[in-house]
UniProtKB/TrEMBL annotation:
Species of provenance: Novosphingobium indicum
UniProt name for this protein: Halobacterial output domain-containing protein
Highest taxon of the lineage: Bacteria
Amino acid sequence: MAIEAEDIARIDALSRALKDSVEPASVAYALQRLVPDLTLRHCDASDVLEEPFRTVGGCDLHLLDTSEHCIRVTEVPAEATGILLAAKVPA
């Protein structure tokens, strides 16, 4: 199922509500509750070259297309079926 405008609104509300120091595990938990139908994957932010879709707490969020055999980062919300949570290393 592709990400919907309502899901994006929920993610945007989450990014406004959480502080920058929030741990990636907390962001992951909140995302699983807010958008349970989307696939959620984790990695280190240094593993991703693409610009993030959103930044929440200590994480960059990237849209994922998981509809094919190989998962890929996408910039098109209509293609997105998941979210990649890329944890930033604290400074």
